[in-house]
Design brief:
224 residues, alpha+beta, 5-stranded antiparallel sheet, two-stranded antiparallel ribbon
């Protein structure tokens, strides 16, 4: 079977431009449009030749595929298991003589470089994606923890100062006694609890009304 080089009519050491020109010439020669009025057998022959020309260019036109092709032609695939050694019939392991061929060695080294570069390229593509998803997971965990903490920790409702029977911020009405009763803030209220103090204390700055309760504690009320 003819090699890709023979199909294009170039030598194994041909440069890329030489191979490209040979491919264009062969493609013009075997293009099916030139055989439209030919006999069916000639048209089929041209079609088959065109497929071989295209395949030869696909391999030899790509530097990486060409190196692999050259390595396979030189038998490089047989070295994968023994790192360049062969065992003869007498049981003695010797260096594979193909390793003495400079072209073979160059192709083999280039194949190894291509495989390493391909692995690095894959890692460079995968690492950003992994980092992105790791960041999303971290944000999700932090958000869930923060929401869980706020849900389990009730707001501070302690009235600053002595206890007066209602929570801080509650809307209240003043009852007889006097005393305070918590009511909905949407209805009629006498104020909102800001705090309380005993004898000698003072109310917060926003206090608009002070009520001395029956137990002697002063409730500080602000506006609703």
């Amino acid at each position: 079977m003819a090699t890709h080089y023979e199909i294009l009519g170039v030598g194994p050491k041909a440069q890329h431009d030489e191979i490209r020109h040979a491919y264009l010439a062969a493609a013009r020669r075997w293009h099916p449009d030139r055989f439209g009025s030919s006999a069916p057998i000639e048209a089929k022959k041209a079609e088959a030749s065109m497929r071989r020309v295209n395949e030869a260019w696909r391999v030899l036109g790509d530097a990486s595929l060409r190196r692999r092709y050259d390595l396979e032609r030189s038998g490089g695939e047989d070295l994968s298991g023994r790192a360049g050694h062969i065992r003869t019939d007498d049981g003695i392991t010797r260096v594979d003589p193909r390793l003495l061929d400079p072209t073979f060695l160059a192709n083999r080294r280039q194949q190894q470089v291509d495989e390493i570069e391909s692995g690095h390229s894959t890692m460079l593509r995968v690492l950003p994606v992994v980092a992105f998803f790791g960041l999303l997971i971290g944000i999700f965990i932090f958000t869930a923890y923060a929401n869980g903490s706020s849900a389990t920790s009730p707001p501070d409702s302690t009235v600053p100062g002595p206890r007066i029977g209602v929570d801080a911020g509650a809307c209240v009405r003043i009852q007889s006694g006097p005393s305070l009763i918590e009511v909905p803030c949407t209805g009629t209220i006498d104020g909102r609890v800001l705090g309380a103090h005993g004898e000698g204390g003072v109310c917060p700055a926003l206090t608009i009304r002070e009520v001395v309760l029956s137990n002697g504690v002063t409730a500080c009320l602000g506006s609703a």
